[in-house]
Each structure stands twice: as C-alpha cells, then as structure tokens.
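All the exercises in this workshop are built on plain-text protein records. There is nothing in a record beyond a sequence line and a structure line. A learned vocabulary of local backbone shapes supplies the integers on the structure line. The question running through the whole workshop is how a given chain folds. Here is such a record, shown just as it appears in the course material:

***
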Amino acid sequence: MAAVKGTHFNGQFEVELKYRLSSKAKFLQTLSTIPHEVLIWENIDTDWYFDTPSHSLKREHKSLSIRETEPSGFKLWIAKGPEPERCEATDIANAKTAKSMLKTLGYEVVLVVEKIRSIYFIGPYHVTLDYIEGLGYFSEFAIMTHNVSKFAIYKQELEALALRFGLGNEHLEHQSYQTLIANQRSANPSEKVALADTVQ
C-alpha cells in the first residue's frame, strides 16, 4: 500500500477541486460503478495547523500542518502556498516529536481540524469522501504533479470525472477546510477549543 500511496502523492503541486455533496449515498453508488482502489476507508484525519504568534504564515498565504490519520497510522508534515497549487507533504515517523519541535521553534497551534476521510484512487487521480461535523460531506478530486504546464489539462480531466458523480461548478467549494472551520468557530464562539493543550 505504501508504494501505491507514493505514486499518487508525489509532486510539488496539487491540482484540486473540492465539491459539497448533497448525498453520501449517491456518491458511493456512483463510485461503485467506476473501477477504483481504496487507500483508506472512514479514517479520522486530524490536522494541527501551526503559525507564528504574529501569524506570518497566514499573511504570506502559506500553511504548515501536521496530520495524523487513524487507524491507518499515516503521519504527514504538510506545507502549502504561497501559490494556490503549491502543496508538499512528507511522511514523518513521530508526530508528537514533530509538533514539539515546532513549538520549540516558536510556532503555535492556531487551529485543529478533524474530519472523517476515505480516499479512493481512480486512474491517476485521488478522490476523497470527507465528513466534517457541522459542515457536512465534501469530496476532493485531485492529482499531485511536478509539471506546471499540465495544470489546465488536469483541471479539465478532474472536472470531467466529477461530472460523472453529478458534480458541477454549482457544487464547487472554493474555501479550504482550514478557512471553513475557522469561519464556523468565529460564528459560534462556544465551539472554540482550547488550543494550548493540543500539542501532545
């Protein structure tokens, strides 16, 4: 599985389209008619987002996070930005130590995002089925690449694949999960969590 995972998540850039889903059942029904492989099924993804006390990464349109996926056991260091497509991730052995190192370097946890995620491979593309409490179901259609010149072609192919699931421009979600969760918590202060104790 690790080798297959590596072939799909190898690249400096990610061409990605995110859609809001009205029906999980309809999505899965369509998926069952398309040849695919399953990487993970209904795992819990937890992302710890870090920034400096002055939020310099946010100002520069960058993000830094540590991800743990259970029960699969994947642990990732993820950096995004400043370009929208720039996304690099690498496996790490010990998420606890990585978070502690970032704290030592002066970074702090600014947001924790938890979602239930399944990942499917359809040809060269990876497709997720995500659930975030309070926000609902989403799906990301994406491919990692080193080739900037193929962005437009990949986007067209991803749009065509999404259409097979009945997903068009009207279903697109342009905000990141990080932004959606931050906005949700700003609108509902009672849902905010104490981040000071989340680095374990």
Remarks:
- The first strand starts at residue 13 and ends at 20.
- The mean pLDDT is 91.
- The domain at 2-197 is CATH 2.40.320.10 (Hypothetical Protein Pfu-838710-001).
- Strands lie at 13-20, 37-51, 63-70, 74-80, 87-91, 108-122, 125-132, 136-145.
